[in-house]
# Entry
Amino acid sequence: MNANTSRQHPAEWEEGAQLFSRTARDLPTGRHQFHKERLMAQIQQEQHTGRSAAPATTRRLRLPRPAIVLPAMAAAVAAAVVAGVVMSDGGGVRGGGLATGPALTTEVGAATSKGVPELLDQISLVAAEESHPVVKPGQYVYIESKTADTFLKTVDDKTTLASHALHRRQVWNSSDGTKGWLIDPAVNTDSAGETLSLPDEQGNIPKGSLNHPTYDYLAKLTTDPDQLLALIYKETKGQGNTPDQQAFSTIGDLLNESYPPAELYSALFKTAAKIPGVVVVPEAVDAVGRTGIAVARLDETSGVREEWIFDKKTHVFLGERSVQVRKNTGTEALMKPGTVTFTSAILHRAVVDGMKQTPSQAG
# Structure
């Protein structure tokens, strides 16, 4: 892929969007609209400046759950980045002001299928006892985390591994998902953050779904594990590398950066226990160094293992990470076993009364 990709003519946008849809399902799964948002920030910057579009995304681009709805041009630019590398002018990745450094690495922990149902049952019981205030109209779900990621970065036709430094991420979303705000230095060019409020530039307001999990939508979902899993397979059909991996990733999304009502939150773990290939990793570490036990699943296509990390004693959810555990070929062979492609740690999840309000401000 040429680093000097030219802007596409409007007539090509629809074709690009179709290419994006076809190729996206073959990319390694990863959750976190983090990467989608970085792409959107890049596109917005190009639209305002009129410069040639240098795509900015990573191999972990996850297409569902658009925090910023894709306009036609966004889909066209995205179609140019499905090779999964970051294109840079040499001074870092545009579309976010966060510095990059060496790739994140870890020891690949052993995994076992023994004890998976029992562990998830214990986690489900703990989740059922957690405090989950109802989100009322006019209130916002606030999630604060620490995140970092590793990606393929190309400068002057040379591809290397790089990572964004561990940084703070704050997200606010209204119960219906139409109003929101994001502060993330790896996404925002403005340190004050940017709006996630809808509609988009075309006047579209997406309905709540598993790919746009508003609180109001989640509050209406079944809490029966069998029915819930069937719904997940149905809504995510054609996404991800396999139906089972996509189902696991979808549940992981809900755990990490949404606010499932109490009964649904507990049911998600019983649902995950029904997905084939789920394992336990006895030793795992979240983004801020908290050690725990992980519920995980290996994506056989990408060789990446997605891990949900829980405190060993309390079984409270700490965060997640994705670890390369198998060798790849081609350019992605740079992602050697032990590379941490994404890591996060949830610091605060709360219901607040106003946009940009934090729990401490709410008293």
Q: What stands out?
A: Residues 1-95 have pLDDT under 50 and may be disordered. The longest strand covers residues 158-174.
